[in-house]
Automatic annotation (TrEMBL):
<feature type="transmembrane region" description="Helical">
    <location>
        <begin position="88"/>
        <end position="114"/>
    </location>
</feature>
<feature type="transmembrane region" description="Helical">
    <location>
        <begin position="6"/>
        <end position="30"/>
    </location>
</feature>
<keyword id="KW-1133">Transmembrane helix</keyword>
<dbReference type="InterPro" id="IPR013287">
    <property type="entry name" value="Claudin12"/>
</dbReference>
<comment type="similarity">
    <text>Belongs to the claudin family.</text>
</comment>
<keyword id="KW-0472">Membrane</keyword>
<protein>
    <submittedName>
        <fullName>CLD12 protein</fullName>
    </submittedName>
</protein>
<dbReference type="GO" id="GO:0005923">
    <property type="term" value="C:bicellular tight junction"/>
</dbReference>
<dbReference type="InterPro" id="IPR017974">
    <property type="entry name" value="Claudin_CS"/>
</dbReference>
<keyword id="KW-0796">Tight junction</keyword>
<feature type="transmembrane region" description="Helical">
    <location>
        <begin position="168"/>
        <end position="196"/>
    </location>
</feature>
<feature type="transmembrane region" description="Helical">
    <location>
        <begin position="134"/>
        <end position="156"/>
    </location>
</feature>
<keyword id="KW-0812">Transmembrane</keyword>
<dbReference type="GO" id="GO:0005886">
    <property type="term" value="C:plasma membrane"/>
</dbReference>
<keyword id="KW-0965">Cell junction</keyword>
Amino acid sequence: MGCRDVHAATVLAFLSGTASVAGLLAAVLLPNWRQMRLYTFNKNERNVTIYTGLWIKCARFDGSRDCVIYDPQWYTAVDQLDLRVLQFALPLSMFTAVSALFLCLIGMCNTAFVSSVPNIKMAKCLVNSAGCHLVAGLLFLLACAICLTPSVWVIFYNNYLNRKYEPVFSFDISVFIAIASAGGLFFTSVLLFLWYCACKSLPSPFWQPLYSHAPSMHSYASQPYSARSRLSAIEIDIPVVTHAS
């Protein structure tokens, strides 16, 4: 597998990154980060479940889908530290992942549509496909760390709230969506790193374009001594003896 072709690894990485960003977007928008279930012992009343998200809060009776209390201004008055951190961490993770997707797309388009031997006058303006995928992999890994750390913290903070108040708190589906999206971002970064490691066998620099110079300009580079050159040196050092007739 070489850097000069578009392979299934890069395409799969792009699709995986896109799905992970979509999962992050769903986790950000859904009001299902934490549930607070309030029980009543009055048989004429129903239990209430309060669904807490990053931006809104909704209270529902059991068996009902309509919000009895709907607070669209919840994001300005969040009193739970883990959710406040997630309000900044998840959008930052999404922005980082989208930037990585953009770099990955640039690398694939450059690989697919740019000629193998470009004009030497345009060498300084070339895009390095391998470099784009490498930086994209690093950005995906960073986005994974930014998303995963506060999402896992929600689970521990939920236990803290249950010990401090009453055992009425539980984390909801958005936590699992965010953790799964972080796993998708990590998988995407691993795919790009594996693709880049497969490209290391090519005679390309770390960051410069694969064809930073015309192929004929690489002939000045010093080549390792071959077996024939070593034999030639031995033949020079050893005198040739001839028998007189």
